[in-house]
Design goal:
four-stranded antiparallel β-sheet, 2 domains, six-stranded mixed β-sheet, disordered N terminus, globular, S-adenosyl-L-methionine-dependent methyltransferases
Length: 526
Amino acid sequence: MHITLRCLCVAAGLAALASAQQQTILFTGRFPFQSLDTPNERAGGAITRLEEFDFSHNTPGAGAVARTLLPATAMQCYLGDGNNDGNYTKFAGWKTYFQNIGVGGIFVKASDRASVTPDKVFFSVRRNAATTGSGSVGALQLEVLTANGTTPYTLVPGDYVRLLPNGNVEFFMTAAQLQVAVGTQSGAASIGAGALLQAANGDLFYSPVDGGHWVNGMSTGIANAQDGGIVKIDFANITYDANGNVQSFAPNSARLIINEAAGGPAGALTVRQMTLNSGAVDRNGNALLATSYGKTVGLAFDPNGGTFPSNWPDAAGNFTQEPNLLFTSDGGAYAGTLFSTAPSISGGGSVAVLNGVTCGSTTVGVPANGSWLGVQLDIANFQPTLMGFTLCDALAYQPLIIDQNGFGRLPVAATQPNWDVDVFSGPFTPTFLFLSTGPTAPGGFVASVPTPFVPLSFTGDSWNDVFLLNGPFSLGLAVTDPFGYGTVSVPNPNTGGFTGFTLLVQGLALQPTGFQLSSPMLVQLQ
């Protein structure tokens, strides 16, 4: 009987694991990552080098490797030239290695997490020129275009946008809206959300931007929400518009759940203490230190369920039970370790487990290496270090990706004889690359047309738009290898006489189910 019951329990456990929804990590980096799949791509290829401005992803499990969901070279097609300086490859040289400016706060609406595509991903900026302390005014600001490319807008930390074609973006939330929710400030403050998470019922959780700010939504009065802490705005205090974006917040509705280093009325538990309770070790295999946390740069719901108690009361004086959350720090020593508010044997806080994979190391002497992200450990270059993180249930499809080194800048042929465009798709996939001219004047954007207007039968896993509008020319054909990689290499056309000239490249792959469009890529001659 004991054997039978045990077998039944094991079988039930295996069935539960088999039916569990696999989780995919979406992330951005503070520095460039190298995918664990690097040996399968050509030496120096652009696909497995995940730039710090790319949207990247990995589904933890045996043999998992990181991929790009949206390369920075594709983002630049949508961003346009918001500051009217003629530079369409803004990410090239945009930051020095250790500046904290970057693409942070990667976010997906609750309704979209079951099937994510690149256009469903919102993001914010980590910092702007006003807080970096380097560069001329405006030199390190990220502008987007709105109103069909007629109105530039400078993003600030806490503005969450997704990129739309033809000079448009969609805002989920702005830092200005959040100012109403946080209310009166009682000292120095930086108002904005550096990490954002939406519950299925519309509740929002966020981590304040660098420096933190004050919140007023607790019955105990105003408190300083540190930039490693977690804040909540209940659905009852949020008005959403017809598109599911934030229309407004109720005044003084943001309330602390748990702070980074300051305990609350319900006890001394903090985010820092949770990392210590987890038993995690750093990239050198040493136990974590309480003073080295940094800032919370990502939030997600723990798919393993459970709840944890808030450390501050809500406006009615109730200490609420909140769903267990995953969180992560931008500290380089953490090597991208993911933590959970779920308890460990030491108390509140543990290393996250996704798809059966422990997303960190809990053994002293065994370094945290970032393998759960699908990237390589590179201690000399402080990688992996996260700038943004969240989870989704699944990607709708693996995009057909084209990319090149240098964030789309093409130097003169004297210094780079060949122009290499790298491709990633399924194995043995013929992919044709087409070329056209890009924007011809400062202040513009790359125009496109929706795929339904094009007389081709695209598969359901295509990009929504065709960007080649100015008479496409063939750049070449790549047939991917057994690992899905290919390269089109042509003589570099940049003789130095057309500095600033822009080109646009987009791929068309022949899949068994039809045609698939690649991400677009904007190239500018330098």
